[in-house]
Design a protein that fits this description.
Elements: H1 2-23, H2 28-36, H3 49-58, H4 60-71, E1 98-99, H5 101-110, E2 117-122, E3 129-133, H6 134-150, E4 158-162, H7 167-179, E5 182-185, H8 192-201, E6 206-210, E7 213-215, E8 218-220, H9 222-231, E9 238-242, E10 255-257, H10 258-263, E11 274-275, E12 279-285, E13 293-298, H11 300-313, E14 321-324, H12 331-343, E15 347-351, H13 362-370, E16 374-377, H14 379-386, H15 391-394, E17 403-407, H16 413-423, E18 430-433, E19 469-472, E20 484-490, E21 500-501, H17 505-512, E22 520-528, E23 534-539, E24 543-546, E25 549-552, H18 553-561, E26 566-576, E27 580-589, H19 597-611, E28 620-624, H20 637-644, H21 661-673
Parallel strand pairs: 2-15, 4-5, 4-6, 5-12, 6-9, 9-10, 14-15, 14-16, 16-17, 17-18, 27-28
Antiparallel strand pairs: 1-11, 2-3, 7-8, 12-13, 13-21, 19-20, 20-22, 22-23, 24-25, 26-27
Helix pairs in contact: 1-2, 3-4, 5-6, 5-7, 5-12, 6-7, 8-9, 11-12, 14-16
The protein binds 5'-O-[(S)-ethoxy(hydroxy)phosphoryl]adenosine.
Length: about 675
């Protein structure tokens, strides 16, 4: 079945080039659709981007079913496309089909183009590049898969991966997919406690890590962090330790040298036939309570969505070198470093360093050396780099770049213009892509779009194929027309959507499907402009975004509250020039407790670093004896947000507070502190 679909695509490509040669530029747009989406020929009356979008939302089963057959290789074809009930939060796609994700990402390319480079590892030190072909990647994936099997890891078991970005880390993810184990990647910047929490919540018996990590010229003792976490997790049975620096690190009974174990294994491992709805991975992300949520994605729907969004949003073509600089510990790394690019048979770059190491030209030096065709990064880095001026960019040749992408937080106009005009020389479309861990892939994005559709600066603008956004007011009414703002919801299912939260389907339903019945609620606010484009206005819940890292303010409050002297705390997100937002804490001490403020601040900061991560450490900590609360005891964080940035002329209505005088006290305390 797949071969037939591939033939169809190939012949469409060929006939398209002939058509182009004959008609030249006049057929350009039509040609875009048929070169990128030869499947269009099987959709009746679809001849323009708009018609294709309309078709995708009106006939989702035909649209996604056609793409699933042509873009993925199946072990057992599916007969049913979707089976979703958004009222109940029950989501299934291709439910009777079977495939293997690692086969789709590696084997099918290794079989045809074995020597094509799959991964380019841009290590921390510039000029230390390592390339790995599809054939080599296949061998590595199989060996790790065999190590896991020899260790007793079976289909459905959860494997926690705590590693910096590297070919071994990518192969470890794909090895899990190969044998049907569920991976649980934890960002290697999280502390031992945060790691332990995620290991326990996911009931993971196996950890894969490295001896150390190297970032920005510094060595990070990764294995020591894992050792501390394992002490808190008696259920962990084995720790596979890969080599990054080769320096000597402490060794325990449960530790196994990964490379040694791989040497004893065969470089072939039969891919497991997985049902479309078997779990592929869990990925923890912050919500509005202190407990992170283990978001679950399944096999086929997720893979299809990552495959198709990568291809169309970034206009991936044969020979491209795709550079997404996200860490594999976040969803962006999962979908646009690993699964999306590899499923398309593209060369994907693994960036181990930081935007400013060894200097502020690092990204663009890499673009010139590796000849990246796409660059996908976070606004926080762009904001940081633009402060250092244009010369760091201009001294490198960026002519290989075709598309620039932005993700993770809103991109402000200044950063967007600089990205577009300086980095892209005014020639590359900038795609501001809005999506979430829960959506699996890009949902709102300026591209793909029609040939004459312009990109407006600093907004994601248009829904992707098959995505129907809806803006709802607090009475659950969908707002029609333009120039409206409200809750950003999605009103029909798409294949990449999350299926559940590990161990807590009730929380899943209550967070995403209960607030606006029949809709997926993203937690973000949204404005539809007068021209009908989508602009994200920020979170509507107590989640903040620090340098593109999602953080629940309740997580930070829980840590502060553990301090002996603390009675209560409230943490809010405060606007920050570079990081976008940064936590700011208001703290009430227990009756009769006095502290040295400086020392107390240091203790609290250290606790947060140890229990969460350094990005969660508050910018400011203000001791107070009262917080603005409603009569029912709810903290009015809106008021705290204004006080934290000294925006006291716009406090809004404070009359509903139980004790309005708290506000004046806080303002004068804040004045004294700043
Ligand atoms: C925010 C990252 C504005 C948003 C892929 C969302 C954005 C949260 C954008 C998800 C954007 C992401 N414009 N805000 N282009 N992209 N966000 O799960 O608040 O780490 O809900 O996924 O980041 O963060 P997450």
């Amino acid at each position: 079945m797949l071969r037939v679909a591939q033939k169809l695509i190939e012949s469409a490509y060929t006939s398209q080039s002939k058509l182009l040669a004959r008609h030249g530029r006049s057929t350009r747009y039509h040609s875009f659709l048929s070169t990128h989406m030869p499947e269009c020929s099987s959709f009746p009356n679809v001849k323009s981007h708009k018609e294709l979008y309309d078709y995708s939302v009106q006939h989702p089963d035909n649209f996604w079913g056609t793409l699933a057959s042509s873009r993925l290789e199946w072990i057992k074809p599916f007969s049913k496309v979707s089976n979703c009930n958004m009222n109940e939060g029950s989501i299934k796609w291709f439910e009777d089909g079977e495939l293997n994700v690692s086969y789709n990402c590696v084997d099918r390319h290794a079989n045809v183009t074995p020597s094509k480079v799959a991964l380019i590892w841009e290590k921390d030190e510039p000029n230390q590049v390592e390339k790995i072909t599809y054939k080599e990647l296949l061998a590595k994936v199989c060996q790790i898969a065999n190590v896991l099997k020899s260790q007793g890891v079976a289909k459905g078991d959860c494997v926690t991966i705590y590693m910096p970005v590297s070919p071994t880390a990518v192969a470890a993810m794909l090895a899990c997919a190969r044998i049907g184990a569920v991976h649980n990647v934890v960002f290697a910047g999280f502390s031992a406690e945060a790691l332990a929490q995620r290991i326990q919540s996911a009931s993971s018996e196996t950890i894969i890590t490295t001896d150390q990590a190297v970032r920005g010229g510094k060595i990070i003792p990764l294995k020591n962090v894992v050792d501390d976490a394992v002490k808190m997790c008696p259920t962990v049975k084995r720790v596979l330790v890969g080599t990054r620096t080769g320096n000597s690190v402490p060794w325990n009974d449960k530790d196994i040298n990964l490379e040694e174990a791989m040497k004893h294994e065969n470089d072939w491992c039969e891919p497991e036939a997985m049902n479309s709805e078997d779990w592929l991975f869990t990925l923890y992300t912050s919500g509005s309570t202190g407990k992170p949520k283990g978001i679950v994605h399944t096999q086929a729907g997720y893979l299809l969505y990552a495959t198709v969004t990568s291809k169309f949003v970034f206009d991936i073509q044969e020979g491209d070198i795709f550079g997404c600089v996200a860490d594999i510990g976040w969803i962006t790394g999962h979908s646009y470093v690993v699964y999306g690019p590899l499923s398309n048979g593209t060369t994907s770059v693994l960036f181990e360093s930081t935007p400013t190491y060894p200097d502020q030209g690092r990204y663009w030096d890499m673009v010139e050396r590796i000849k990246l065709t796409q660059f996908y990064g976070a606004p926080t880095a762009i904001r940081l780099l633009l402060k250092y001026g244009d010369s760091w960019v201009k001294k490198y040749d960026r002519s290989s770049l075709r598309v620039l992408g932005s993700v993770g937080e809103p991109i402000n106009h200044e950063a967007w213009e600089w990205y577009h005009n300086v980095v892209g020389n005014g020639k590359c479309p900038v795609v501001d892509t809005w999506w979430q861990t829960e959506t699996g892939g890009i949902m709102i994005t300026p591209r793909p779009s029609g040939p004459s559709d312009k990109i407006e600066p600093a907004m994601p603008m248009r829904p992707f194929f098959g995505v129907s956004p809806a803006i709802l007011d607090d009475k659950h009414n969908e707002l029609s027309g333009n120039d409206v703002s409200g809750a950003c919801c999605i009103k029909s299912p798409w294949p990449g959507m999350a299926r559940t939260i590990v161990g807590d389907h009730k929380r899943f339903f209550e967070t995403y499907y209960k607030p606006f019945p029949g809709h997926y609620f993203s937690g973000d606010g949204c404005h539809r402009t007068a021209s009908g484009y989508y602009q994200i206005t920020g979170r509507m819940d107590d989640v903040i975004n620090v340098s593109g890292h999602r953080l629940g303010t309740a997580e930070v409050e829980d840590v502060i509250d553990e301090h002996d002297a603390v009675a209560e705390s409230a943490v809010i997100g405060c606007a920050h020039d570079i990081k976008g937002e940064t936590p700011y804490a208001f703290v009430i001490l227990k009756e009769g407790h006095t502290v040295d403020e400086k020392e107390f601040g240091e203790q609290v900061r250290r606790m947060i670093k140890e229990k969460i991560s350094s990005f969660a450490v508050p910018e400011g900590i203000l001791l107070t004896d009262g917080l603005p609360k409603t009569r029912s005891g709810k903290i009015m964080r809106r008021i705290l947000r204004k006080i934290a940035v000294n925006d006291i002329d716009n406090l809004g209505d404070v009359s509903t507070l139980a004790d309005p005088s708290v506000v004046d006290k806080l303002i004068s305390l804040k004045r004294g502190a700043s």
